[in-house]
């Protein structure tokens, strides 16, 4: 079933106001390596369109600009307003045709001009809660589980989700 879900297309590119963020899933920080590293964890990048509430999330090989900028350009139309935290990979979004607004989490989580990433952060909390019951996920299985969380989130009602799953199962027969 997860295979069928992961093969479904992502939503059309987002426009308007879009929140972006990266998160890490899997094992907790081990304390090994340099401070602040996330060894043993899976990097995931997400985008959330504020108007519709829809999300796109995917496992990424890294969280540098070379990994994230192509995903942003694929999933967000130029001229849109992108809200992010102060992560350095997002630094040049303004030069790429986006209106870029930044909230610096060292100082605040929401500024007075509705600059925040609370929507995508809420999706991370939802996904981590969903996956917390699935102990011992392998690194290779995360892309399918992340796409399942995305589809569950984007098909808000249980009825829509049941219809989607029924269609997937019928196509696999």
Automatic annotation (TrEMBL):
Domain annotation ISXO2-like transposase: ranges: 13-154
Q: Which InterPro entries match?
A: IS1016-like_transposase, Tnp_ISXO2-like
Query: From what superkingdom does this record's organism come?
Result: Bacteria
Name by which UniProt lists this protein: ISXO2-like transposase domain-containing protein
Whose protein is this, by species? Answer: Candidatus Uhrbacteria bacterium CG10_big_fil_rev_8_21_14_0_10_48_16
What is any Pfam family matched here?
A: DDE_Tnp_IS1595
